[in-house]
């Protein structure tokens, strides 16, 4: 009597810290058709309020929750065992990069706004926001930033993966992907900036390149998310600090 040997299922590949998640040449690569589904989810997420109009408080918060859920669900479908590579833990060096990227984002938006004589992000606030209004403002920003970073990083990884399959070097593929996605963000933000191309390139494009640098340097989504949160926290509470300084 012979014993049939059942082949064991190969363990899911977990990229090391030196690897880029879902690199086109790695064992954790995502196929082209699955990337198409992920990119479609990112497109839906970016314009979801037009596609899925929300009314009332519950609808508003449900819409905000969908910002990160839509692209993340597509990624989990595309790679059920490998999606966690995108949210790997970060160490002391990564925290240093996070803080540096946050300061660079803050400097970019602040200096750019002053140089362009524009109000920048500070101009979107009616005045110093305090109490419940400040808490609500910041709470709404968290899911929005989570979704925005997903919808920026996933297309970058998709494009970099495709270029790597064409035998492009990793550094060139990542640079081209970062520039292309930053350019797309500039174009998408033009209507909300009264078609001011220079303002969008300086305040949106450069910031996206800085955040992309943070991601590809650490290979963790937590770094651009954390840097974006910290820089926005500083920017949107600045009017409150300025008004308090006048009262001293």
TrEMBL record:
Entry keyword Protease: yes
GO molecular function: metallopeptidase activity
InterPro entries: Rce1/LyrA-like_dom (IPR003675)
The organism's place on the tree of life at top rank: Bacteria
Transmembrane segment boundaries: 61-83, 95-117, 172-190, 196-217, 229-247
Stretches assigned to the CAAX prenyl protease 2/Lysostaphin resistance protein A-like domain: 136-233
Xref: Pfam families: Rce1-like (PF02517)
Broad enzyme group: hydrolase
Transmembrane helix in keyword set: yes
Alphabetical keyword list: Hydrolase, Membrane, Metalloprotease, Protease, Transmembrane, Transmembrane helix
EC nos: 3.4.24.-
Name the record gives this protein: CPBP family intramembrane metalloprotease
Organism: Tessaracoccus palaemonis
